[in-house]
Amino acid sequence: MDCCLRCPRSSTGRLIAPRTAQGSWSRSTTSPRSCKLSTWTNARCIVQPVIGIVTYTEMARCLGWPEKEIGYQDIIDLRDDPQGWRKYDCALSEWGEKPLFAFTDPRTSSTGRSLHPALYSMASGKDPEQLTEEDVTDPKVVAVVKKFPSLIDHYQIGPTVLNIKVHQGVRCGHFFVMPEDNLIHLYEGTESAYINGIETAAPPIKPGSMVMIYPKEGSMPRKNCACIVNADDWVTPEEKIAADEWIDFILEEEQRRAFMASGFRPGPDDIDLDTLENRAVCKISSEFGLDANRPGKVLNPSKTRPEVAAAIDAAWEDVKRPGIVTFVLDTSGSMLGRKIDQAGEGLVRALNSMSGTNQVGLVTFMTKSK
Description:
Elements: E1 3-5, E2 16-18, H1 24-29, E3 44-47, E4 50-56, H2 57-62, H3 72-80, E5 101-104, H4 110-124, H5 133-137, H6 139-147, E6 152-156, H7 159-168, E7 175-179, H8 180-188, E8 192-195, E9 198-201, E10 210-213, E11 220-221, E12 224-226, H9 237-250, H10 253-261, H11 276-279, H12 306-319, E13 324-330, H13 338-353, E14 359-365
Parallel strand pairs: 5-6, 5-7, 13-14
Antiparallel strand pairs: 1-2, 3-12, 4-7, 4-10, 4-11, 8-9
């Protein structure tokens, strides 16, 4: 669970606010290399949306869904096939030849951070909790992990930017890694997207137009948990009791049903979504392109050991698709003096912050470009 917090030594407060759901924050705070603020033993799951592959219903059916299990490897194979979509008689010309895959960057997105360790799990054939640091550097595992970024056309910074691809239609994206609640909100028209440069609510997608594929390699439940901080000089016994009571309140029936009505699966695993009472409020249904009886295979990235998770995070720059960047620099007389110095300093800072695998070009111009 990623959280934003104020330092316990700060005079401005003692707030911890859950921000995302994936488990990376609590993994880092329980790491041997950091103070032990939280443990999974006291974590209680509030909601757990499942992450899968959202695509257009026509495309899913063209690949054999729902009768056939579809996964990441099927999309990689489609991308590698010289014919691409043309190999399928059911494919439409407007889809183009190659599948377009959109994915949020693990450095800025909790969904991306969930998928990244899951890729190592798929590549090694191990559950996330069984992964070791040796697996992260194993050449065979790395080679398989690197196949996935070959699908990516653009890394999106977060869901709002990802939603633009959906809004723009099949010419701009075919497959989207996202949680179930995101798809529900796309149907309801309550997701944000940048349209004509302005962040606004995206128009609702057409009924039945998109579905979630629960990958055969495994889907990731993104657990939104509440943890009580273990820090006696920061959190008093009374605050711990109050926090525990607040978590009890959040998990009560009324609040649980409110979460379900907002598009989330409830946190406790023993809750049956198929009861008459839960079906009345639960949106994990075919109406929103989802299946309450799925996923079949589950991968839990939040169970990855802290030291392994840190190694996977550090490896991202080596396995991701290299960026291609071109800088354009004005070297005319108007830039003489401090202006050209500042531009040069900015270029150096930008280069120093980039991945070493990026391809970088420089175009200078005075009256003509060079």
